[in-house]
Amino acid sequence: MSGGDAKKLVRSPSGLRMVPEHRAARSPFGLDEPPWVPDKECPRCMQCDTKFDFITRKHHCRRCGRCFCDKCCSKKVPLPRMCFVDPVRQCSECALVSQKETEFYDKQLKVLMNGATFFVTLGTSDKSELMVCRLSNNQRYLVLDGDSHYEIEIIQISAVQILTEGFTPGGGNTRAIGMILQYKVPGAEEVMQMKFTAGEDFSCNKKLSASWLAAMHKVSK
């Protein structure tokens, strides 16, 4: 996988982007740049309806491609899903979405790529294997390493169920203790299943495992 992870710097009308050299190596979390609404089709701000003139200039949101006045499109916010090197201009609505995603990129994805240790059970087997589970550097694969080795493409994952304990009918704290993952193998009809369980005898890794599972739950959304 590492051979296809090379990136290149490209310039688009929206700004500088650091993108994979090969489109097939793109992150499954990435977004394509939207087409901009042509200038001639937006005589007014698409948010506040202010008419554009020599004083009131039009700006395009880099996330949605719509046309706004400076007041409605003044924020410059990181947009990692489009691989922008620097923060880019976005409308207020898109800026809120991008700000929420920044936390996902800064925290959850890093947790997943750092990995955690689980007992992994394949299908209906009654045997489990201790494996280190992590997200690949290009974010395209879930990599499992132990005596065995698996690489599951993220886009092939069809369902993620987080297993918890500590819930009471009256409410209370719960913690993630494992997950059930369903995925399809390219070319195969059947759906495969894996069960991940945090080992009770690895108390020092409980917090790390719980954080990894919480991040995986966000990925599945």
Automatic annotation (TrEMBL):
PANTHER family in alphabetical order: ARRESTIN DOMAIN-CONTAINING PROTEIN D, ZINC FINGER FYVE DOMAIN-CONTAINING PROTEIN 21
The UniProt keywords, alphabetically, are: Metal-binding, Zinc, Zinc-finger
Domain FYVE-type, residue spans: 39-94
Under InterPro entries, the record lists: FYVE-type_Zinc_Finger, ZFYVE21_C, ZFYVE21_C_sf, Znf_FYVE, Znf_FYVE-rel, Znf_FYVE_PHD, Znf_RING/FYVE/PHD
Molecular function (GO) terms for this protein are:
zinc ion binding
Q: Which SMART domains match?
A: FYVE (SM00064)
- The name on file for this protein is ZFY21 protein
Source domain of life? Eukaryota
Alphabetized Gene3D superfamilies for the sequence: Zinc finger FYVE domain-containing protein 21, C-terminal (2.30.29.160), Zinc/RING finger domain, C3HC4 (zinc finger) (3.30.40.10)
**Listed transmembrane segments:** none
Identify the stretch annotated as signal peptide in this record.
none
Native organism: Chaetops frenatus
